Amino acid sequence: MDYGTLRGVVALIILALFIIIVVWSYSKKRKSSFDDAANSIFEEDHKEDTNKQETNNNV
Hints:
Blueprint: H1 3-25, H2 28-39, H3 46-57
């Protein structure tokens, strides 16, 4: 196998991995877990925020 063929095989493998990742990330099974992860920042307690503010004020 020469260098050109090897480069072609590697390019096809990378393209296949890219397509697999795109299909996986846009699948309907994953949508709910991605939505939960995206909204998790808004679900934190406000108590932690006030403790952080008090700590920052003492600096």
